[in-house]
Amino acid sequence: MIRHDWTREQVAALFELPFNDLLFEAQRVHRAHHAPNRVQLSTLLSIKTGGCPEDCAYCPQSARHGAEVAAEPLMRLDDVKRAAAQAKAGGATRFCMGAAWRSPKDRDLETVAAMVREVKALGMETCVTLGMLKPRQARRLAEAGLNYYNHNLDTSPEFYGRIIHTRRYQDRLDTLAAVRAARIKVCCGGIVGMGETRADRVGLLWQLARLEPHPESVPVNELVAVPGTPLARASPLDPLEFVRTVAVARLLMPAAYVRLSAGRTQMSDELQALCFFAGANSIFYGDKLLTTANPQNRRDRSLFARLGLRAEAGSEPAAAAAASCSR
After folding, report:
1. What's 154's DSSP letter?
2. 173-216: per-residue pLDDT in tens?
């Protein structure tokens, strides 16, 4: 059953379950809504890098930090189309484009709309993350055929002010509302390992689970501590706590894709295997995520073979009636 009435106390209780019980329940729910051995592959491309005026403490693209990320202009349409074709040839079904903006200017939005149309013409799903959107901008992207818009909540409302000062939590919720009103699917998750408490991880997932409908994609990022950013010396999160976060996300949002996103280069194969068992069924596929490294395709293919996982051929979740066996 898909619920939107979880209480914060109920979410906290899920985190407190014995580890084996939590994973068992997450796998049971996962199999009721998805083909258990299929993983959706997405590729992420930075179409405009660096120079962002925001002060997100985790982000090397902020102009306010000292990370060694050179600012680059918006990519040319032909270059984006070429990268999308390569991603499709590598097995990706969704192509995600990210631009380091606080919010897009209308003239740049028209260029992004053209990119969306070109990528869709290749037969791929499209996703963009461009910062805050006005309702009319969301409608313009919908007219171009955009499938997904990514806009993460990042963390709990209580911890948010320690990570970001240039954008309010409500600003993020307003952008998500504009995206929904334009009938674009939502990709929304957060980052763990930024020094937050378990109560903050509870708060993040509770916020996501209260959205109606739930985000169709829920990226779970582990902080990549980049030199030059305020979180460069953050202590790593306990790996089993990361698995718990994935499992609780699966229980709260049964029909969503739960995506292993940033941080996979620092995860062992065994940790990723536990995450897939806990309900993760999507990854970013390729050698780079915006400005940080990602596991090479070769490593992912090897891990999939060892686990008996297969890349999802389509782009939508399997029907529940067909989810009891691998397709």
Report:
1. B
2. 999 999 999 999 999 999 999 999 999 999 999 999 999 999 99
Residues of the chain scoring pLDDT < 70 = 68, 286-295, 313-327
Q: Other CB atoms closer than 10 Å to residue 287's CB: what's the count?
A: 12
Catalytic residue among 52, 140, 172, 188: 52
Task: Please confirm, yes or no, whether 325 is among the known catalytic residues.
Answer: no
Tell me the CB-side half-sphere exposure of residue 212, using CA atoms within 13 A: 6
Identify whether 259 is a catalytic site residue: yes
Q: Is the dihedral of CA 23, 26, 31, 32 positive or negative?
A: positive
Whether residue 275 lies in the annotated active site: no
Q: What are phi and psi of 136, to 5 degrees?
A: -70, -30
Q: Is 47 exposed, middle or buried (0-12, 13-18, 19+ CB in 10 A)?
A: buried
Q: Which of 201, 250, 259, 264 is catalytic?
A: 259
Angle at 284 between CA 89 and CA 85, to 5 degrees: 25
Out of 38, 56, 94, 140, pick the active-site residue.
56
Read off the tokens for 239. 């790996």
In order of 44, 57, 91, 206, 215, the CA distances from 180 in angstroms are 22, 28, 28, 19, 10
Active-site pick, 140, 167, 172, 187? 187
* This prediction's pTM: 0.88
Span 60-85, pLDDT tens digits = 888 777 776 777 889 999 999 999 99
Respond yes or no: is residue 188 known to be catalytic: no
Please pick, among 96, 172, 244, 275, the residue that the annotation labels catalytic.
Answer: 96
Q: How many CB atoms lie within 10 A of CB 93?
A: 21
